[in-house]
């Protein structure tokens, strides 16, 4: 069963360098297939190069899609990372 959710990046740097690396690390901890959709491009969320190639900046909306055994947990964890953990790093 698959899940997806749209989220807006509110942190100052968006998903660049360190935040992207942490996102990929979190995504890689799950067995589910996870992808990020941004401006009609869909990439594997476990690929740092793919994620960085999207150039997602502050205020942009992405869709996180998950498919597999732990897909609901993966989606919840990644959404929390973007909505809660990343903005804390700006403080």
Automatic annotation (TrEMBL):
* Family annotation (Pfam families): PTS-HPr
User: What is the name listed in the Swiss-Prot or TrEMBL entry for this protein?
Assistant: Phosphocarrier protein HPr
Q: Lineage of this protein's species?
A: Bacteria, Bacillati, Bacillota, Clostridia, Halanaerobiales
> Where found in the cell?
Cytoplasm
Keywords noted in UniProt: Cytoplasm, Phosphotransferase system, Sugar transport, Transport
Q: Which PANTHER family match?
A: PHOSPHOCARRIER PROTEIN HPR (PTHR33705)
What are the recorded Gene Ontology BP terms? phosphoenolpyruvate-dependent sugar phosphotransferase system
> Per the annotation, which location comes first and is thus the protein's main one?
cytoplasm
Record-linked CDD domains: PTS-HPr_like
Organism field: Halanaerobium polyolivorans
InterPro entries documented for this protein: HPr, HPr-like, HPr-like_sf, PTS_HPr_His_P_site, PTS_HPr_Ser_P_site
Summary of the function given for this chain in its UniProt record: General (non sugar-specific) component of the phosphoenolpyruvate-dependent sugar phosphotransferase system (sugar PTS). This major carbohydrate active-transport system catalyzes the phosphorylation of incoming sugar substrates concomitantly with their translocation across the cell membrane. The phosphoryl group from phosphoenolpyruvate (PEP) is transferred to the phosphoryl carrier protein HPr by enzyme I. Phospho-HPr then transfers it to the PTS EIIA domain.
Q: Which residues form the HPr domain?
A: 2-89
Give the CC-aspect GO terms: cytoplasm
